[in-house]
Amino acid sequence: MRSTNPVESPARTIHDFSRNPMLVYWEMTQACGLACKHCRAEAMPHPHPLELNTSESMAFLNQLLDFGDPLPHLILTGGDPLSRADLFPLIDYACGLGLEVSITPSATPLLTNDAITSLRQHGIQSLGLSLDGSTAEKHDAIRAVPGTFERTMEAARHAGRLGIPIQVNTLVAEETAADLPAIYHLLKNSFPVMRWSLFFLISVGRGKALNEVRPEVGEDIMRWVFDLVPRAPFAIKTTEAPSYRRIAIEKMRACGTSSSQMKNTAVYKGFQIRDGHGIVFVSNLGDIYPSGFLPLRCGNVRKNSLVHVYRESEIFRGLHSPDQFRGKCGECEYGHVCGGSRARAFAYTGDVLETDPFCPYVPGKQAAATMV
Ligand code: SF4
Asked: pLDDT tens digits, residue range 195-207?
């Protein structure tokens, strides 16, 4: 049986993630001029012939309104969203519906300063850029195309000049782990960054070409991140490593941080959010997945209601219910705030509700007296 939650459930009054996702990721296209070693999308040079066309895309965007208040934030991803000829009309359409829209373009020749300026003019709220190395040599080796480091840096500098909030996404893998401190210093000194997102690799797509860090190395990295947060000039978050929340709670408790003080921290805002709970992913073909890293197709926006699938489909209902999780994650006192990476559990076991093998924590270690 699960013990009581270490921190009482957050944001219930604002956001019930079993009803409304915070983020909807839309893979607008698989087309991309890059061939990154860890690409989730297994991007290809040309769009899939069956990708959602403009009118189907607009019909999908209309569906997002059915979530009601609070509306999700829409993140345009790919492939390379800039390769869609109807990108700007679709951004205009989404903004006209009242949606907040962010974008994660690829560092191809399409990512010009003019394109970034146009994104700003069309109402993009923030720009996501990938930086996986502190030098051109290191970054371009991961991205497999020379010149992507410098193009990313120039895009970030230009976005900074325009005042566009920038999220930098960095891969955490055996191949990048030692370089993370240098990447941090580069970000600190090069352009204004809103958020640094550390994506802990899962072996899907081209990710199989790179290696996940071992769990104990991952724990060390997460502890380093937590210690960095108070000094960093930007927010730092982890992706596909929700056990960072356990580490943060453990460290805050060790410092005597009270439950109410914890609720004012940035890490608290991410509590509960995981694949399929707070997040939903729609592919270039309209297929609905719990996240871009969890290849369990749950429906298609061409014929299913995204809202219904998110709230009622069997897979999503399981993902909304940590009490249904199995193994350690099912017994863990951090199950509600963390819940483990459902994508990694699925990648390793084929069971989306199983234990996240990346987490070495042994549930029940936390004495009941110290629970909040
Ligand atoms: S055992 Fe699972 S729920 Fe508990 S901290 Fe680890 S990943 Fe999170």
From this structure: 999 999 997 554 5
Between CA 131 and CA 149 the distance in angstroms is: 7
Q: How many angstroms is it from 275 CA to the middle of ligand 1?
A: 14
Residue 350: CB atoms within 10 A of its CB come to: 8
Q: Does ligand 1 have an atom closer than 6 angstroms to the CB of 27?
A: no
Q: Distance (Å, rounded) from C-alpha 238 to C-alpha 250?
A: 16
Instruction: For the chain, list the domains and their CATH numbers.
Output: 23-240+275-320 (3.20.20.70)
Tokens describing residue 104: 């994660």
User: What residue's CA is closest to ligand 1, atom 1?
Assistant: 329
Angle made by CA atoms 134, 119, 280, in degrees to the nearest 5: 75
Q: Is the CB of 335 under 6 A from ligand 1?
A: yes
Q: What share of the chain is helix, strand, coil (3-state, %, to 5)?
A: 40, 15, 50
Strands (E), 18-130: 23-27, 73-77, 101-103, 126-130
Q: How far is CA 240 from CA 115, 134, 176, 345, 356, in A?
A: 30, 22, 16, 10, 10
Minimum CA distance residue for ligand 1 atom 7: 340
Q: Low-confidence residues of the chain, pLDDT below 50?
A: 1-13, 206, 367-372
Place of tokens 């800039």: 82
- Locate the ligand 1 atom nearest the alpha carbon of residue 341 and give its number: 7
Binding site membership of 332 for ligand 1 (Cβ less than 6 Å): yes
Rounded percentage of the chain residues whose pLDDT exceeds 90: 80
